């Protein structure tokens, strides 16, 4: 299994989506001899699916790959089955996850990644859905009949765009308090906060944490002090495969 789970699409100084992680994406797609990239743009709300697919194609223009949007496929399941790589855009996690369930795509995506070795790159909402559920997303639930189980590619919950700052004049819960609430209700689970400009790279049973700006990863477990892990660290233990 090969995953690149990015906190966000862009950081300051980057004009293209995923540009801050482009060396890692290039290495992965070259190593896996990727030719056919399928973009999942369903999370996009405030712009078009075509525009988001074009943005990904622009980022990958230095590679000899064909980039298509899954929304354009006559048979989305067949498109996933024929993909050499899957790129999942950020946007609204609830809309993304519900659409994947509605179209019967959860199983085919899981099979492609786990059984065919298809690399998966997701940012923001596209990273959050790699967790067992999307219950630690930051997004508003803007759809009815919300569905929380997701791809379950990694055993921990993900909080993308993680920030531990407090805002002057804001009296609502902080991000840390929201995560603490989640863990109180779900005491046997853990939450990984990945800040802007960072990503988790999974290759087989190995996972590393990388950040273009040096920001640390934040690992939350109930009744334990938050653990901060520096960029460049091996975090395979978070996969639960070290014992």
Explain this structure.
26% of the residues lie in helices and 22% in strands. The protein is built from seven helices and twelve strands. The strands form two sheets. The protein has an eight-stranded mixed beta sheet with strand order 3-2-4-5-1-8-9-12, with helices on both faces. It has a four-stranded mixed beta sheet with strand order 6-7-10-11. The protein is globular, with a radius of gyration of 17 Å. Belongs to the peptidase S51 family.
- Name the overall outline: globular
Distance between the termini: 19 Å
Query: What Rg do the Cα atoms give?
Result: 17 Å
User: What's the mean pLDDT score?
Assistant: 95
Q: Which fold name fills CATH's third level, the topology?
A: Rossmann fold
Fraction of residues in β-strands: 15-25%
Q: Tell me the CATH architecture.
A: 3-Layer(aba) Sandwich
Q: Give the strand tally.
A: 12
**Adjacency order of strands in the biggest sheet:** 3-2-4-5-1-8-9-12
Number of structural units classed as domains? 1
What assembly state would you assign to the polypeptide chains in this entry?
single chain
Which class in CATH terms?
Answer: Alpha Beta
The CATH homologous superfamily corresponds to: Class I glutamine amidotransferase (GATase) domain
List the total number of helices: 7
Q: Which range best describes the helical content: under 10%, 10-25%, 25-40%, 40-55%, 55-70% or over 70%? A: 25-40%
Low-pLDDT stretches are none
Keywords: Hydrolase, Protease, Serine protease
Pfam families: Peptidase_S51 (PF03575)
Family: Belongs to the peptidase S51 family.
Protein name: Alpha-aspartyl dipeptidase
